[in-house]
Amino acid sequence: MAKINILDSSIFNLISAGEVVENPSSVVKELLENSIDSGASEISIAIEDGGIKSISVVDNGCGIECEEIEKTVLPHATSKISSAKDLLTIGTLGFRGEALASIAMVSEFCIKSKFIENDKAYAMEVVGGKSSDIVATNLLQGTSITVKNLFFNTPVRYKFLKSASGELALITNLVKNFIFSNPDISFKYSVDSKIILQTNGDGLENGIYSVFEPSIANNLIPIEYDNHNYKITGYIGKPASNAIVNNRNKQIFVINGRVISDNELSCVVQNAYGEYLMKRTFPIFILDILLPFDMVDVNVHPNKKEVRFANKKAVNGVIYNAVKQSLNKNYVSMQNELKESLFTIKPSNESDNLDEKQFVNNENAANQNQNNKINTDIKQEEFKINNQIVENWGKNDIDTLPITNIKFSNGITNFADSNLNDKIFVEKSIEKQINKVIYKIIGQLFDTYILIECNDRLLIVDQHATHERIIFDKLIKESEGNIDMQQLLFPYSVNLENDELAGIEKQLDNINKLGFQMEILGNKLTLNAIPYMLIDMDISEFVRDVVAEIKEINLISSLPQVRIKLAKMSCKKAIKGGDKLNSDQLDYVVNYFFNNNNIALQCPHGRPTVIFVSRTEIEKMFRRIV
Ligand code: ADP
Ligand code: MG
Question: What is the pTM (predicted TM-score) of this model?
Fold first, then answer.
């Protein structure tokens, strides 16, 4: 055995420096944290050669007193805590007091600072841990730190650096995170003398616009949630938009001012999106979470990239609710906007004359109309016109009634011939307002989309996505016990493993509430009946799916999520893209679209059901307007 040596402090310091200073971006991180802790409102960062040649961070913070400057590079020198007790209430980003010491150990380091209460500024240089004298220097305010030739004295570390562009990518990402976590600070970030990012420090929204391209920034929806202990603000990706992507790179959690990564929290957000998200897609988000300092331990990870929560379950729950709430709110407001634009037409002069009168000039419809007695108390009634169920919107905010439907079930319509005079005006006597809705089914496109003209818009409806929605909604809404069932002529049975049976058994109630009739006898699972609307479903495939899904369900959740999962599986059997639809099928899909109080914008798997093209957009394409 060799003898045990006590390491010389200079070697020891070099080794431990390597633990704090991993790469240029970790230097930038430490310097930025110090600037923020100093109360700076403006910080500029300049990088050369991926930070390997030079990193400089300049702030307008409180600065450092002359006598303190030399202490900054001593190991465990910190002004932020003095006792273990302080660790419980730590509010600053730094507190270990090892960053500057470590950085100065492995670089050519220069610090200049002007303490806020002094007239003069002072500077010190440290090369490989050896400090120069303190000298007077020129600096108007704050602190300026420059780190050159990182790892010049630790060749092994140097060798493990990525290419300059690789290191730069890490730094740029980091700076973006700082912009998100400190939206009230103005940042200027330049690379090789070129300004790359600049913010005014006037809030998160503007910060987001300086970092993300408009196609993303325009598609983020605000989130706001406050329950006493936890406060959540920020922005999350709008479903079915450019702010939903195929990786998790732009998912940012800011916990008490610190950007952290946390896979579990990411999953919570993912779950909260639920049916708003397509498979293998991920929302972009910036979630700023404030919680009492004693509820979170930031001291877990040396780089403080991870934190530990005193009550993780509570945090998960709060985030889940906050995200869900904001998504639902957004969905409802999108629906309302849509309803308004589709179903509100200002009465024209011509129709003004008809005010307070019920006017019908379509005989067929008129008859039906009479049969159904349209009058002032149509509030919650359903009535049929041209064999279509028309529901009153029954909502105070929408005064319109979708009544007139001009449809051409034989496919493509000749506009000139189309009987646009088929009008039904219905008075809603309370508001004394006449409204009408006219839509026209133009036909099927590529056997996949249904084209509809409505209120100066072209609607392109995805037949599959919409039909999925119909089935899903029916299963979920009507699953309180009145789904029409169809007994199977030949009940389907399959033998299962014990663990599979146990899983199914737990969910049997949930499954049967959705209009299935499933039972377990010994090792045998038998399906006796299915919802009527799924009459030609592939039963063996369904059972196989249920067995597979239940395993997953038991892992993640219980409660309503189970029903949603099952309903999602069932609606797989919706009409497909590529199916030629007959006129009844077209009507069925379109009617649902127009007569449902909550127009479905997305299918249960997160795909859009409809796309709108405005007349203006089309006219622009044809250069009718510029
Ligand atoms: P820590 O941040 O953990 O306290 P550091 O090694 O990062 O340790 O910094 C040591 C000390 O130097 C800080 O506690 C602070 O007092 C001072 N300091 C460092 N950078 C700045 C700055 N930009 N402005 C003001 N003070 C600073
Ligand atoms: Mg620090």
Answer: 0.73
